[in-house]
Amino acid sequence: MAGEPQDDCLFCKIVAGQIPATIVRETETTVAFQDINPQAPTHVLVIPRVHYRDVATLAAAEPAVAADLLRETGEVATQEKLESHRVVFNTGSGAGQTVWHAHAHVLGGRGLQWPPG
Ligand code: AMP
Ligand code: ZN
């Protein structure tokens, strides 16, 4: 069922505590943890506890949780003392999405080029 934990999902396993992660913040609806392969000095992933394949699907199904996720990207940036940061939602394999559980990348701690590649 939509939103239910998926047995084969890495991020559902992190939410359930079955796979270790360096968690930096948690709320009732979200978990934020260090990306295992950081692309910037600060690279934190913010995920909803519920499983949806991407952020647009999450927003359509559970807009309040999508709002929580967005709010948490700002809380992470504040907690990590980022002067500037970028929030990225890779959506689809052509855009680099590799984990099919909605997640925001919060990147900062260095100059970030625009436009991104
Ligand atoms: P994306 O490519 O946008 O789907 O992002 C997936 C992100 O998850 C990548 O930046 C990976 O480095 C990260 N990642 C994969 N496995 C783990 C893990 N076990 N713990 C933390 N981050 C992970
Ligand atoms: Zn999942």
Structural key phrases:
117 residues; 26% helix; 21% strand; globular; binds zinc ion
Describe this structure in words.
By secondary structure, the protein is an alpha+beta fold. Helix content is 26%, strand content 21%. It has a 5-stranded antiparallel β-sheet, with helices on one face. The N and C termini lie far apart (35 Å). The model has no long low-confidence stretch (mean pLDDT 97). The site of adenosine monophosphate (AMP) has 13 residues, from loops.
Uncertain spans: none
Shape: globular
Helical run tally: 3
Mean pLDDT: 97
Sequence-ordered SSE layout with sheet pairings:
Elements lengths: L9 H7 L6 E4 L3 E5 L7 E7 L6 H7 L1 H17 L5 E4 L15 E5 L9
Antiparallel strand pairs: 1-2, 2-3, 3-5, 4-5
Helix pairs in contact: 2-3
Bound molecules: adenosine monophosphate and zinc ion.
Summarize the structure.
The chain is α+β, with helices and mostly antiparallel strands. The chain is built from 3 helices and 5 strands; from the N terminus they run αβββααββ.
